[in-house]
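In response to the reviewer comment on reproducibility (Comment 2.3), we provide here a single inverse folding case reported in full, input and output, so that an independent group could reproduce the run without further information from us. The structure tokens appear first.
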């Protein structure tokens, strides 16, 4: 899902949460975490390209997205999946554990859960694979026997 849609849905969720007893700071943390989770896309770009330009990151991402869309389902099965360190159940589990230490981690958990749920709905609607945003362990194991598609310049 493109960032503009995460921003829009985050605004919608935050607007709804304004009618709950949650403090505005809690709503802000949920909103910000629902957006900042996508920093793993940018950090992946930096690790692969060694570049920091947001404009180049956007162009690089759109290029890969467009090239991937042109592949047939059979061709897609030959290639590795992108690794996103924050878009997975394992990260949510860590946040759950940290929630016992501080409520802020629970608020971050809620924002990220909302983000992932919107990703799942979008992927289901577009008939995309949900696996890249479900389990990091699954993706790493899956990628062991696949050709690289996403992790190069």
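Designed residues, in position order:
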């Amino acid at each position: 899902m493109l960032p503009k849609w995460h921003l829009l849905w985050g605004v919608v969720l935050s607007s709804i949460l304004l009618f709950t007893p949650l403090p505005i700071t809690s709503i802000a943390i949920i909103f910000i975490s629902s957006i900042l989770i996508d920093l793993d896309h940018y950090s992946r770009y930096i690790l692969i390209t060694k570049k920091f330009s947001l404009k180049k990151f956007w162009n690089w991402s759109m290029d890969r997205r467009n090239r991937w869309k042109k592949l047939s389902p059979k061709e897609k099965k030959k290639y590795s999946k992108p690794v996103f360190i924050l878009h997975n159940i394992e990260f949510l589990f860590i946040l759950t554990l940290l929630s016992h230490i501080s409520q802020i981690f629970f608020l971050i958990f809620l924002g990220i859960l909302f983000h992932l749920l919107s990703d799942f709905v979008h992927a289901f609607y577009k008939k995309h694979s949900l696996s890249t945003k479900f389990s990091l362990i699954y993706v790493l194991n899956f990628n062991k026997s696949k050709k690289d598609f996403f992790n190069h310049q």
